[in-house]
Amino acid sequence: MKVKICGLSTPDTIAAAVEGGAAYVGFVFFEKSSRLVSVDTARALAADVPPGVVKVGLFVNPDDAALEAVLDTVPLDMIQLHGAEPPERVVEVRGTHGLPVMKALGLRDESDLTALDTYAEVADQILVDAKPPAGGEVPGGNGLAFDWRLLSGRRWPLPWMLAGGLEADNVQRAANLTGATQVDLSSGVESAPGVKDPALIRAFLKAAGAERPGPPHDGPGLP
Ligand SMILES: O=C(O)c1ccccc1N[C@@H]1O[C@H](COP(=O)(O)O)[C@@H](O)[C@H]1O
To answer: Most CB atoms closer than 10 Å: which of 60, 87, 101, 138?
Structure first.
């Protein structure tokens, strides 16, 4: 399984993710998140990430200036859009910034499934997360799972990731029910909100049977 560890902000947790076999590492550029990193910190951390591990920048409804401010400094490989960006904005971001885009979508019930098909036509990857709690200020990273049976038998013609409340104890069941071969998590490897724990990262990667593909390539939908 390919694993993305999101919300990394320290050298020791980057090392735990890379050495444990994470295929993706994520940096959060959303001011309201407890995992927010500065561009300078992200640039320094990115220097410790070997080729072949995809460096993802997480943004929520960013304008082009916000994206440029990060991309000018941090050598990201992929943009994760985790807000209410419409399909046209996904197309625009891909075209303007020249990086693959992974669009996150929240799922609560069957009525949310149609959007996945729509975004699958415009994004390089889709990320299926739980919907945030009503009135919540942060649209992801809440440690909440959705009913994984909603995804049973669903497939899209592009790479996709499962997210939302994943941890070492439930990742295999989640993958079995959904068919996911890629997973993304943040809260499940933290000792406190926003504080990543290297031991929990290693345990998760082991439980998930984390595998990283070989040489990097430049095609869409990395890796
Ligand atoms: O991690 C955050 O702080 C965050 C902020 C805003 C949007 C998304 C965020 N994280 C993403 O949320 C999912 C699920 O996280 P969790 O494992 O349930 O905590 C994951 O895709 C993160 O990339």
So the answer is: 101
**Tokens at residue 99, please?**
């990086």
- What spacing in Å lies between the alpha carbon of 154 and ligand 1's midpoint? 22
Ligand 1 atom closest to residue 35's alpha carbon, by position in its atom list: 3
- Per the annotation, the verdict on 6 as an active-site residue is yes
The range of the structural domain enclosing residue 200 comes to 2-208
Q: Burial, 25: exposed, middle or buried (Cβ in 10 Å; 0-12, 13-18, 19+)?
A: buried
pLDDT at position 66 over 80: yes
Domain membership of residue 214 (yes or no) is no
The arithmetic mean of pLDDT across residues 109-113, rounded, is 95
Residue with CA nearest ligand 1 atom 10: 141
Nearest one of 182, 161, 170, 190 to 33, comparing CA atoms: 190
Q: What is the pTM of this model?
A: 0.95
Domain count, the chain: 1
> Which residues form ligand 1's pocket by a CB distance below 6 Å?
6-7, 26, 28, 30, 33, 35, 58, 60, 82, 104, 127, 129, 138-144, 163-166, 184-188
Give the ipTM: 0.98
Amino acid at 2: K
Catalytic residue among 124, 129, 197, 218: 129
Q: Mean pLDDT over residues 171-176, rounded?
A: 98
216, part of any domain: no
Helix, strand, coil proportions of the chain in percent (round to 5)? Answer: 35, 20, 45
Mean pLDDT, residues 33-47 taken together: 98
